[in-house]
Design brief:
With about 170 residues, the protein is α+β, with helices and mostly antiparallel strands. It has one domain. It contains 6 helices and 6 strands, in the order αββαααβββαβα. It has a 4-stranded mixed beta sheet, sandwiched between helices. Strands 1-2 form a two-stranded antiparallel sheet. The radius of gyration is 18 Å and the shape is globular.
Amino acid sequence: MGVGPALDKLENEFDIIARQRPIHAKENSRNLRYSLVDPFLLFWFHFIHANRSAVEMENFSYLHQLIARDFDTFSGKQLEGLFVAQLKHSGQFNRIGSYWDNKGEHEIDIVAINDLEKRLLVAEVKRQSKRFKPEQLAAKTEQLLQKLNCQGYSLEQRCFSLDNLEQVFAEFPK
């Protein structure tokens, strides 16, 4: 049995995973990723299942230290999902997604496009805005613009972070 039917069930019947394509990819493109959508399962597989030997040995202090060390990285992805949800609910964009190239080198967390207003928003999500490097986002955006057909669109490059969460929510209200 192939993996296709199982992935289809996990995605469409159980709502456990989601299929993601880069924003520039066509519907039949094979350039896609699957990700877990359930927050509990994400946490479970990231911390508990990956360290099941520590759980079996009841070495809970090790797990506590591991979670304390890696939680910032783990929660950054959840923060990205929060910003994407806010942009979707704002109704200001008709396409929202991520971007990555075939090699996985140039990744952009959020790309939001409004084709009516010819507006393109490109954002990196960081827990702390001081970690944002505008020059890196600009280089990644150049790669993205070569793939998208967005000539004449106004381009806005941003950093979304915990530091400006309230500002972003006010700017993109539900």
